[in-house]
Specification:
This protein is an alpha+beta fold. It has a single domain, classed as START domain (Alpha-D-Glucose-1,6-Bisphosphate, Chain A, domain 4, 2-Layer Sandwich). It has a 7-stranded antiparallel sheet. The longest helix is centred in the last third of the chain and has 25 residues. It is globular. It starts with a strand and ends in a 5-residue tail after the last helix. The mean pLDDT is about 90.
Length: about 150
């Protein structure tokens, strides 16, 4: 199951890269976070309570940068575990300089669903995942804007 999107940021690619590889910055923007458990240089873990109709309770998530080419490309793996559910998502982010700043193009793939998530329709999961990702990118835009438009 794959999904994708893009966003424009009014900052230089290297500045956006620096923010997207700053695990403290990124962890503070994850939707529905209950708590941050651990932050390291290339990964962090947190507990979220997503507001999804097909998933009750909390998920423990680990976000890890698994490959990087500064300032053009990032590959991130997210692993989620909860009561009778599990998921692994791989995402790739590509940053390109444009006249007005940076264009970010992302693709993501749910590479594994475990437990009760196996029974949930792909369309329902994809719609919910798209909403969470859109909320995240909106939070990034807002955070960068509150920094005066510079990352």
């Amino acid at each position: 199951m794959e999904f994708s999107g893009s966003a424009l940021f009014e900052c230089e690619s290297v500045d956006l890269w620096d923010r997207l590889t700053d695990m403290t910055f990124v962890s503070g923007l994850i939707p529905d976070v209950q708590r941050i458990n651990r932050i390291e240089s290339t990964e962090f873990s947190c507990r979220v309570r997503p507001s999804l109709s097909f998933l009750k309770g909390s998920l423990d998530l680990t976000f890890k940068i698994v490959d990087a080419e500064k300032p053009q490309r990032l590959k991130v793996q997210t692993t989620g575990k909860g009561m009778a559910v599990g998921v692994v998502v791989e995402a790739e982010l590509n940053l390109t300089a444009v006249e007005t700043g940076t264009k970010l193009v992302w693709t993501a793939s749910i590479v594994e669903r475990k437990g009760l998530l196996k029974a949930v329709s792909a369309g329902l999961i994809q719609g919910a995942a798209q909403r969470v990702v859109d909320d995240f990118w909106s939070a990034v835009q807002e955070a960068l804007g509150s920094e005066g438009g510079n990352a």
